[in-house]
Amino acid sequence: MRIAVIGGSGWLGATIAREAIGRGHEVTVIGRDLTRLEAIEGAQPAVVDATDATALVSVIAGHDVVVSSVTDRSGPDRSIIPAVARALIVAVPQADVPRLAMMGGGGSLLDDDGHRFVDAPDFPVQYKAEALAQSEALELLRAAPPTLDWTYLSPPLHDLTLGEKRGGYAVRGDDRPAVSETGESAITSGDLAAAMVDELETPQYSRRRFTAAYVN
What we know:
The protein is of the alpha/beta class. About 35% of the residues lie in helices and about 20% in strands. Helix 4 packs parallel to helix 5 (about 125-140).
């Protein structure tokens, strides 16, 4: 499979790229930092403005799927996240790429009362702008033309940690958090990346959000 990873210079995007390469896939990593992109052994680097649909088309053409793992800590509103989603909704069909996958946020997951966690009064203020931006990106996908085959992976709300794979995670295909038998919701970056590549290899959640967390 030929996979383009946008945000490949970021910690999670790079983890997804390395997971895909380790499984034998051909990977193009797209980002803003060429040095960090070139550090991903086995990947083809490309520096492109991911908010520019026209520029993206020529880079992603010929791939089987585009994965977006974009964040932005340079501004107060994290506006690059929905901007990239808008560009991809245009660019992916134009480039004739069959599928779009987005690594999203957990703030738009729903609590037991059906309310978004990001709307709770006690939601951490330092994460709110990014959570709202990720929520907007999800709504853009949901409003996209039905011909666009997309999927959106939400990590656990708080407990996503930098770490290697250890296995033992499960996925859930709706707007509720995936949790363990004890009610905890946690996963490492290595296993979250593995859950994403699992979905790329064996699609289950076409035009749906899914989540992943450890069950034991």
